[in-house]
Structures are given as C-alpha cells and as structure tokens.
C-alpha cells in the first residue's frame, strides 16, 4: 500500500464560531478539495477499509484517500452530507456525545466552546444514510492527562451512548486534540474499539498503527498547492513515525498542569 492521505476536517462553514475558525474550511473550499482528490485519480474509501488493509485484509485501490470529520458540527448535516452524497463518497464522523443535542433538549455538556452542533436525530439520519459514526469521547478532554477511571468513562460511556442511539456497534475512535499515549491506546482497545485516529500530520500506510492512524489536518490556511501535493502523496512523512521527544515533554507538562488544577487549553486539535 502506498501513502494514503486520511484527511481530517472539523467545521465546513462560511461563518464558523471564532474558536474553531482557524480549523474550518468554507463549503466552496471543501468542494474544490473533493474535486482535487478526484482529479488526482484517488479513490475515496471508507475508513474501515483502510483499517482492514492495515490489519492484513483486502488491499485498497492503488491510489486511495479517506475523509474524516471530528466533533459533530451541525454543518456536517446541512452542508457536508449533501456534497458527499452528490459525489457518492463515504466518510467517518467522530462524535463528541456531550456536545450533541437530544431530541427537543440541549447538550449534556462538553469541554468544547459553544457552536451549532448536531442533534441526536441528525446523527441517526446520517448513520442511516451510510456515514460511519465513530466515537470522540463524551466531553472532549485531553485523554493522556486523565486518571484511569475517568479515561474509561470517557471511552466506554461515549461508545455506549452512540450504540444506544444508532443501534449497532461503534468500533472507530478519534483522540480529542490528537493526544494519546501507550496507556490511552491500551484502554481504547479494551473499550472495544478496533481503530483509532490520531493527527500526526502524516500519510497513513499499510504499516500504520491501527490505534494511531495518521491524519492530515485540513485548516483554513491550508493552501490549494499544499492540498494538491497531499493528493499526489507528497509534502508529508509516511506513518508509522516514532513519537518525538517534544511530544513526550509536552505531555508531561500538560499532566503536571492538570494535576494542580490548571490544565493547559489549546485548539481543538494539534
């Protein structure tokens, strides 16, 4: 398997809330990016096909790509789903369940700032239309700073809430902020997930780690040329990649801050 771009999106909107705006793209830009993927001759495949290939199953088409979306913004239902349906493209939507609105109610609560988010009814509809629904925790915390019991609650609770609503197993997961550790990944597997997406800003590959799948984050400042190079399999390293010393140091710092009740904030994904 050659380098596989697994694209990571958040909001697709002309007017996103300021806190997510640096990580949002406009509907026009998103449609153009889908066209660039097609122009490069890439076949967009479901995430589960990539996971199966990594685990030794059927090979992917020679030039493949995957689309993923984090958090559960309402614009996925109103904008993204239509663009994907028009082109017959699969995608995976990772849902933060605490940010989802119950029928006729309000969100149960998450660490994400206010934003228009999906309702449970919309999640069910998207699932019925073929969008793969994955888990993104209950409250969107930095998982690698949590005590074991709290971590398990975020993982198992999110999965159970999703399965109770859509009525079938949820086996894919994405780490909030892209943060994980060996301990977190073990608990993700113990919670029943067969795959988990990180960020890494690298291409995935046949040798990638199923519980640390590399993704390329598409941001508001992602240029057309950079995106075009990704569709050509250029401009980023190929996973698996060793964890950098600065990543380990940053984790220790965040854990220390969390331990004294002053957690480090930051963007939705880094």
The secondary-structure class comes to alpha/beta
Q: Please write the CATH class name.
A: Alpha Beta
Strand and helix order = EHEHEHEHEHEHEEHH
Low-confidence stretches: 266-270
Residue fraction in strands: 5-15%
Please give a handful of descriptors for the protein shown:
single chain, 270 residues, alpha/beta, TIM Barrel, eight-stranded parallel sheet, 8 helices, 35% helix, 13% strand, globular, disordered C terminus
Report on the structure:
The protein is α/β, with parallel strands linked by helices. The chain is built from 8 helices and 8 strands. The protein has helices spanning 27-39, 47-54, 75-87, 120-128, 148-166, 182-190, 224-231, 245-259, and strands spanning 6-9, 43-44, 64-71, 92-95, 132-135, 172-174, 195-200, 213-217. Strands 1, 2, 3, 4, 5, 6, 7 and 8 form an 8-stranded parallel beta sheet that branches. The chain is globular, with a radius of gyration of 17 Å. GO terms for molecular function: hydrolase activity, acting on carbon-nitrogen (but not peptide) bonds. Residues 63-270 form the NodB homology domain.
Short overview:
This protein has 270 residues and is of the alpha/beta class. The chain is built from 8 helices and 8 strands. Helices cover 35% and strands 13% of the residues.
